[in-house]
TrEMBL record:
The lineage of its organism: Bacteria, Pseudomonadati, Pseudomonadota, Alphaproteobacteria, Hyphomicrobiales. Residues 6-122 form the Gfo/Idh/MocA-like oxidoreductase N-terminal domain. It holds the Pfam family GFO_IDH_MocA. One of its GO terms (molecular function) is nucleotide binding. Coiled coil: none annotated. Residues 136-256 form the GFO/IDH/MocA-like oxidoreductase domain. This is Gfo/Idh/MocA family oxidoreductase. It comes from Roseitalea porphyridii. InterPro entries: Gfo/Idh/MocA-like_OxRdtase_N, Gfo/Idh/MocA_Oxidoreductase, GFO_IDH_MocA-like_dom, NAD(P)-bd_dom_sf.
Amino acid sequence: MSEAPFGVGVVGTGMAAKPHALALRDLSDRIAVRGVYSRTAERRAAFCAEHGFAEAASIEALANDPDVRAVIVITPPNQRAELVERFAKAGKDILMEKPVERTSEAARAIVETCEKAGVQLGIVFQHRFRQASQVLAKLVSSGDLGAIGLARASVPWWREQSYYDEPGRGTYERDGGGVLISQAIHTLDLMLSITGPVAEVQAVAGTTPFHTMEAEDFVAGGLRFANGAMGSVMATVSAFPGEAESITLDCEKGAAHLQSGTLTVHWRDGRTETFGEAADGTGGGADPMAFPFDWHRDLIADFVDAVEVGRPPAVTGRDALKVHDLIDALVASSRERRAVEINNRD
């Protein structure tokens, strides 16, 4: 490990930047924020003043700074490709907010850009860093729960119409879609990281009367996993006032229910065990940022560790392509009113 502070740049100061800022402040003993850039000078100045960070005059200033070893990209997905190209060319490792891009094809292009440049690409799927999530992953990978027979993912969230009144939000041009790619993607990624890939889906998706927006605010689908398990997903931002997302796995030796930060396991021998603790918030209600920053802190720390020792981060860009393919399949299934197979090429 290097004794000097690990230098990072930050691009983007919108709503999603807050937990990153809090996490970076908490990690200030080992990470130095060399500069923060946003296209809006007033927002950039206010953000830096609030969090005690230095401003960056331009993207080039961050790319050319030899003390910037990695860049955290927190922009909307339609602004990613050009930024990744520039930073990868400059040899900067990149930690980027989800989704990778708006479509699977564009996401693959970004992953390949980083691979060709020889830089690390990590994606912010912080739900994997919850203690209860990690316990569940270990129980499955170790075989303690036995084979999975049924997997159910539920994201019953709520967003006010004012959330979608922001220009571009909930559109294909800026966000790449609605509830799947912007909200449920976290739960779907976590599910896949534990269950393995989905082979086939059949779904219905649409927009409820509660929102005026271009993309979907509701989806429900049946899943057939590559390992033979069956499953389902339901995701919406129309369930007032919003409840915590959950993943339930029915396995040979017990049933595991992960809801937000708490895991409850009902073993078939009659035991019941609980792991983790209830989170202060999950972002499932009217305030999208009502959740702790601890998961971001641990994810960023893992990414820095990975760069310093030369290993892949816990969530790589190529890992993230799996959830992009699942989202594409769910949308295509609804649009074409048929079952859709997933290639799982990565």
